[in-house]
Amino acid sequence: MPIRLEDIPRLITIADIKGEKIFYDLGSGDGRVLIGFARAHKELACSGYEISSFYVFVTNLKARLNRLKNCRAKKADMFTVDVSDADIVYVYPNPKFAKLINEKILKNLKKGTKVISYCFPIVGLTPTKTSDIYGKREIFLYKI
Question: What sign results for the dihedral spanned by CA atoms 48, 144, 127, 17?
Fold first, then answer.
């Protein structure tokens, strides 16, 4: 399920970007979150990892059309990429993949990395902040 476009500003707000340099979107799909962060923060190097070649193409085309030099999607399995240098990571940990995402996040991220989760909490972590609309589409911010 892709994120609703009207929820992207809430993601950007909850991220509270203050000097962070590297943003990763794991499972970036059509690039809507990646493009949103790249537009909002030109100083942020935004990379998306997506298994679908089609979505990688679409995202990179959108980035090029929007002249976003700080935005790039790459074809890769989000469970095998190295994100250890991330300052901010966005995930949609749907229940089917939650355990794998949790292991990836907890195992590889440096202390102080912000993790933003859409709709589903990350089991084993306590959010530092949440954003909720009508009891649905909750956004969770974690700090490793």
Answer: negative
Read off the pTM. 0.93
Residues 6+ apart with CB under 8 A from 5: 32
Q: Largest Cα–Cα distance in the chain?
A: 40
The 10 Å CB-count burial string (b at 16+, else e) for 71-93 is bbbeebebeeeebeebbbbbbbb
What's the CATH number where 24 sits? 3.40.50.150
Q: The domain containing residue 111 runs over which residues?
A: 5-143
2-16, 95-109, 121-135: the lowest-pLDDT one: 95-109
Taking the CA of residue 7 as centre, how many other CA atoms within 13 Å lie in the half-sphere pointing to its CB? 20
Task: Please give the angle made by the CA atoms of 60, 61 and 64, to the nearest 5 degrees.
Answer: 85
Tokens of 37: 């962060």
Read off the DSSP letter of residue 6. G
Q: How many domains, the chain?
A: 1
Report the distance separating Cα 35 and Cα 58, nearest Å: 11
What is the C-alpha separation between 66 and 29, in angstroms, rounded?
Answer: 17
DSSP assigned state of 100: H
